Amino acid sequence: MGVLRLLFYFTLLVWPSLQEEEGKCDETCGNVTIPFPFGIKSECYSDPSFRVTCKNGEKPYISRIGMEILGSFTSRDVIVNNPVTYSNCPSKGDNGSGDVDLTDSPFFFSGNNLFGSIGCGHSATVSSNRTDPIGGCLQPRCGDGTEFQGCYATVSENLTSYTAKMIPFTNESNGRNACTSAFMFSVGNFGHFSFPRDINISSTHVPAILEWKTFDPKLKVPLRKSDCAEKCGNIDILYPFGIEDRCYMNDAFRVSCEETIDGSKPFISSINLTLVDVKFSEGRVIINNSITYSNCNNHQDDRKKGVSVNLTNTPFYFSDIFNRFGSVGCGNFATIYHNQTDDPIGGCLQPSCNSNANLSTNDMCITSIPPRLDTFAASLTKKYRSYDGNRSCGSAFVFDMDSLDNDGLLTVPHTKGHVATSLQWGKPLPAPCKLKDGKKTFCNSEGHYCWSWLSRELLCVCSDSDYASAYSVDVCEEPGKCENSKRRYCNMLCLNAPGNYCSLTCPEGYKYSDEEYRCKLIKTNSSPLPGRTRNLIIIIGCSTSIGTIFALLCIWRLFKALERRNDIKLKQKYFKRNGGLLLQQQLSSNEGNVEKIKLFASKELEKATDYYNENRILGRGGQGIVYKGMLTDGSIVAIKRSKLVEKKVLEEMKLEQFINEVIILSQINHRNVVKLLGCCLETNVPLLVYEFIPNGTLSDLIHKPNEEFPLTWEMRLRISTEIANALFYLHSAASVPIYHRDIKSSNILLDDKYRAKVSDFGISRSVAIEQTHVTTRVHGTLGYLDPEYFRSNQYTEKSDVYSFGVVLVELLTGQKPISSSQSEEQRGSLVTFFLHSMKENSLFDILDPQVMNEGPREEVIAVSWLAKRCLNINRNKRPTMKQVAMELERIRTSDETNVLQEQSDDEEDYEIMDDVTDPWGISSCSTMVIIDNI
């Protein structure tokens, strides 16, 4: 799919839409106008990434990224509603992430944004793609009445994604002041780098600037219809301004023609100022701007500090090229501020009122204004004592230099409240350009000047000599260079956008010449190719690229097919190596009425164990590692991963043990035997899937006592009875007799009700009904091993009885079969020590205190005698597991008198061997021995 998507985008780049039509794309959503390249209808946006969805007819959203548009479109950026990251804010759901990922879109967060944070006592940082922080700030300390003020910092990078993090910096940030938030926001909406008061701790979204990748200069541009009304009163309304729809460039240039006492007057709707004239080629409009007065008795609006209209977020600013700051009067110091709270940015001193007897009331001081001024405040401060009441009246204003008369004077009567001022809506560039042909060029009604769109930002404006400006370049200096000699004076016009004024000195591909005071085209050595050759190259390049992409797609598909084939072959190889054929052979022979075994997929078990995470390990044994897992249906299971060894002989033996365990467990159906759910043979090591037994092993319950859940005598007797019943089932009741061969407390699992479950059948053997023993290499665990089995290599059902007897002794004494932590007299075999205590009538000296305190004396003695019988050196004198199970049931159900009476009649002589659990001391054994430690 990724390659197909790449092919789709490549096709869009090769064949971009070049149609320029008068489509009906004057779209709005709520009070937001949607300009190109954005659009709601399919024919109105340049690319699917710029499609806008109008939800409920009120809020526009960029469909690709799901962010709400707030407006303020320019040719480079747009203001959107950006989500806030907050922490520890109960009113908003405690914690919330405002991270936005724009990676798969053409948009990115502008470097003109700021990173801000509200709260106190926290350090706020912002990171790109979860790497090291790229910016941050420290909130004010708590307790100074600044709990919900904030901090901000610049972020110079353009970000496609970011992560905000807030960390307590002081102890005071806990408790009621713990709520804090962080966000990326547009400072342009809130004044000049002052912290936005419109944002508070309850804000969930803030305005932010998004930019997008550079467009093809051939993209569609707004078109103007031909029958536009161009007059209001005696004022010509020239493009980009207009009164009717599709007569103005955008809403910022819409003009309303209103009736006043002086007749019809045009007003620029977006700033509510009277339009006086339009200088198209210079990119400016002349309006009537207010004047600040001081000490003028005949002026009702006497202001010492007047504030101009605010042009922020509009494409207009007070022109520093054509305007000056002036002040009329005497004895005053006139100053201009960016706003009322800033320091002065300019000013001039009026002459003294008594310095010249012939001083005119229109004499003035003049100074320049800073570039790109979008608002200002003027102030007059008296510096000299006035001797004439009329002369003490002063005024200050920003005015257009064309308003001066030939003597350099500006007549501003005390009764006049406005002065002509130039607003720049575009920046004239002294660069030569050429008008386009046909419908792509527009002219004013008299034909004095025409213009063509070069891009979304640049116009080419050509005028006759009467309308040429100081920025115009004669493009017909050389004979025969241009056909239309009437409009030979051309220049480029770079358009402003709200909050993003044009800063170009020369357009791309041009360089400013200090000698000629204009932009000159940068010459290159390459000459343009003929149209047919260029088209042929494009066709060949496109065909080659598409062919290459299709070839790569075919190679990729072939690679994936080979990868799947190799994966299947590898799984088949593992299936054979892990005994799949042996398992199939055993199942097909149907020995013991084997039930059908479920085969799990390797991917399902990998997902169930989180790829065999170490944290999922339940235990480790001689035959493998057991993991806890969750299947796709939500059931919890135990997954046993068999061990592999390096030697081939032992590896085959482990494999045989694994298949043996599968076959044996498939024959067993008993509540006290762990249930096998299935297996997996597709992996490097074979896997068994069991039911999950939650409460660990009997060994842990005995040797790691829990005060909150003690192992009572009743539990010990019940668990031993359940183990005996399970072994009796294996020896006698199963379809084929099964010898476990590794009975020990760590192989007894406990379910949620602490019922015993016999597990780990890795070295178990099934035997024919008429067989009494199996001859095999010695396997087992030190301390549980039958001495006669060790001597003879013959394992019988009585060998399981011996191991069960050791488990009974563990339950009685609470001690391990072999332990180096025991006392000197107890060190060695627990069996030897137990039999010796029975012989010396000191049984109660070695019993677990819990057994002594809770167990009835007669029952304890009866179980001890039963354990002694199970541990008889002579296997023929040991009871069967059937007899053991019946004896334990009798002990549990009989009264104390019958227990003692019946037990006393069963006493036999026992031989005590000190080396019964030291098989390495028996020199007669020459067979291979595999013994696990406890």
TrEMBL record:
Location of this chain's protein in the cell: Membrane
Gene Ontology biological process: cell surface receptor signaling pathway
Keyword Protein transport: no
GO CC annotation: plasma membrane
Bilayer disposition of the protein: Single-pass type I membrane protein
Any one GO molecular function term: protein serine/threonine kinase activity
Signal peptide residue numbers: 1-19
Protein name per Swiss-Prot or TrEMBL: Protein kinase domain-containing protein
Organism of provenance: Gossypium darwinii
Organism classification: Eukaryota, Viridiplantae, Streptophyta, Embryophyta, Tracheophyta
